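Dear colleague,

Following up on Tuesday's group meeting, I ran the structure prediction for the two-component complex that the binding team flagged. I've pasted the input sequences exactly as they went in, so you can double-check that nothing got truncated or mislabelled along the way. The structure tokens for the whole assembly follow below. Feel free to forward this to whoever is handling the docking comparison.

Inputs:
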Amino acid sequence: MKDKKLTYRDAGVDQEKAQELTEFIKEKVKKAFGFDQIGGFAAGLPLEGFKRPRLLATADGVGTKLLVAQAVNVHRPVGIDLVAMNVNDLITTGARPLMFFDYVATGKLEPEVFKELLEGMIKGCKEAGVVLAGGETAEMPDFYPPGRYDLAGFCVGVAEEEELLPKELDERTLLVGLPSSGLHSNGFSLIRKVLRQKGLSYQHFLPELGKRVWEVLLEPTRIYAKEVKKLKEAGVKLKAMAHVTGGGIPENVRRLLPENLRARVYKEALPESELFNWVRELTGLPDEELFKTFNMGVGFILFVDESELGRVKELLPEAFELGRLEKGKRAVVIE
Amino acid sequence: MKDKKLTYRDAGVDQEKAQELTEFIKEKVKKAFGFDQIGGFAAGLPLEGFKRPRLLATADGVGTKLLVAQAVNVHRPVGIDLVAMNVNDLITTGARPLMFFDYVATGKLEPEVFKELLEGMIKGCKEAGVVLAGGETAEMPDFYPPGRYDLAGFCVGVAEEEELLPKELDERTLLVGLPSSGLHSNGFSLIRKVLRQKGLSYQHFLPELGKRVWEVLLEPTRIYAKEVKKLKEAGVKLKAMAHVTGGGIPENVRRLLPENLRARVYKEALPESELFNWVRELTGLPDEELFKTFNMGVGFILFVDESELGRVKELLPEAFELGRLEKGKRAVVIE
């Protein structure tokens, strides 16, 4: 063996397999979106009918929720999460999301795993109304241990200049919450550590939730693009939006506030949630820590003038008044 | 310790440190690009003066070149590579690159490592004429071993519809090569395996190259945005461009060819290269395998009408006639 010349294939990189994979993705994407630019150096869309278009984009990953997916060998949900984390960020700017790109990195590509991820991403993109326009699937021998992959996503959209958010906020601004579908993609490092500490396996059945731990944890992140689109099409004037991710409600609302406004969030407005009761009990953490780490049942927050509340609730019956802005030093008060 | 309640910080996620990091990036980016949207949910740029704009984007990573960087603790070059891999892909479409986004994932963020990566990315973005508009820095405890990080990048640009490439190719089309700066970011799985097999360390000094192995390997990928811009501004009509990455010249030229055209590439046209002589000797591979795996000294290929060759060489003195298209079944012949 000593004199055998190593080819690129011997080194763990199989270009023919890569070619086959590209064909597979191409076909799936063509079928799902009627889009045929997969496999080129880049992918694009025409920007028609915009007067003063503004290009907007985001980059985000899924974080350690991936470790749960990889532990139980269920991958479709995190494909959805990847799209959700990016699209929900992007739409807060007022942009219409247009294209999504993924980066999937692994040691040795497992076709079955990749298929599930791709299915999840396609589902997420369809829900969000974006095209899965391209991406990179990186096989990196020696880099990732068997079964491990990381995901990064990227979403591009466009807004007319006058659609751009946030607009100016004032004391007449209400915070309107939209329910989350579960933990979304935040707080997983903590949850995983507590589960380990308590010796709870992902397969453990939780009677109060009627599901196993992993099913609870892997519930995909909700995508709020359709809801936001519906409000805009009905002419509802949105002032700002927050995607509740790392840092929870406090941090993601705070970053939108001017120096002279404080947000008051009503705890009793939060949806009754068996899930977050379980999280509270499991972690034993005080509310202050819980709110900094988890979405606590609120995945997305709309900032609207109080005169718009009725219309928002009519269009989105699940929307609820979560809080309001008031004069005071920039802060988020949860009570 | 058993009853200690774990907070998110105990679980390895430090939100204050994350906040500090955001401030640090914000400052650097503001200074480098005069751009102040870091830290929001998304980032954007106005699209002014376009008539029929077309949005284009790419996603790419650096691959196992990262393992070399991590082994010798030198990170700036791969920051440049990340930008280069994306920008060079994007410009092949005829687009003007506008914004770059990064995803940096690691177990525990090392500020010094991150600083070097950021410096590299900023350098790359400046060279490419794009804004480092945002990104995601993911700290994933338990996911990456100490010292390990992965990088993904995304680049967005815009082209007027009439600028879009490739245009129709014909037998009058020449392939004009631009030199690579080194291995760029391809072939590393193979090179690393051969080095290991031969017991050659990254610190080994190569007299024929006047450098250590790691210095040779980590030479950053050249960015061709300035050169392409120069040609376009001078009115040179480009028909297509190829970024020579995975699959080398054969694969990256082939993907641009129509069914009825064959590309002939002249081996003797390639720049004399001590580096690729070393690679040839080290790996002992035949040329066919070498060309499929490495760029062999050609990082970027311009497809132009033969009437444009003089102008291209005048504007870019390092450009060389690498080959031409001729009638025949779609293929790349290297001879």
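The mean pLDDT of chain A is 93.

Cheers,
M.
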